[in-house]
């Protein structure tokens, strides 16, 4: 299960109910505990659910509703006043329909992040520094490209000469806007902290998914969060490479 699949499942999740006992929802909740991005999304989803519940609780019961219900029940038992029953049902239907139509206006709206290069770089760096899990673990570049192609993630990428010499460890896929970004994982050869699998990450995304993709040319080196990064465009792909250290630490892989 990846992050996008988990989000689709958790759209049906209502906190504080028996929904958490559903096996698929249980698995998606478990993934949210290890994925910061999914955890933030889940927190916002739960907040929207609570907002909607609060709005329903604020609906005032119409005056005389209890007496009306009792009267109509008696009429029903006597098989009379059929017209009044139809009107009452229609009123309830109108109220329910109104709630459905108006509920989107009660919920807080958070605009999606713009598809700028800066937002893309920050999102991918958060992924690299989080406790992610690779979708495929292998040191075979052919298997990596075949796996990504099978899931329609960018796979026809070209590695720079320096990166071709790095130790490949596997790959994963990350959601970006309405498409996918491929994450290819490497090791620089430096000692790794306990529990860390990689310390060099290459992200590849379609050029059309960024409204300000860099022009083709030499890689642009910068610092994003705690990583030294390099970004460049080649053909219809944008490449984003990151590791810890200084400019020299990343230039050897370009």
Structure description:
This protein has 3 domains: about 5-55, no CATH class; about 65-105, no CATH class; about 115-250, no CATH class. The chain is built from 9 helices and 7 strands; from the N terminus they run H-H-H-H-H-H-E-H-H-E-E-E-E-E-E-H. It has helices at about 5-10, 25-35, 35-55, 65-75, 80-105, 115-130, 140-150, 160-165, 245-250, and strands spanning about 135, 165-175, 180-185, 200-205, 220-225, 225-235, 235-245. The longest helix has 25 residues, at about 80-105. Helix 2 packs across helix 3. Mean pLDDT is about 85; it is low at about 105-110. With about 250 residues, it is α+β, with helices and mostly antiparallel strands. A hairpin with a 2-residue loop joins strand 6 and strand 7. It has a 7-stranded antiparallel β-sheet with strand order 1-2-3-4-7-6-5.
Mean pLDDT over the residues: 85
Q: Give the amount of beta strand, in percent.
A: 15-25%
Shape by Cα distribution:
elongated
Q: Element order, helices and strands?
A: HHHHHHEHHEEEEEEH
Spatial strand sequence of the major β-sheet? 1-2-3-4-7-6-5
> How many DSSP E strands?
7
Helix content: 40-55%
* Tally of alpha and pi helices: 9
Kindly give the count of domains. Answer: 3
Low-pLDDT runs: 105-112
For the termini, the CA-CA separation is: 33 Å
The biggest beta sheet reads:
7 strands, antiparallel
What value does the Rg take, in angstroms? 26 Å
The SS-based structural class is alpha+beta
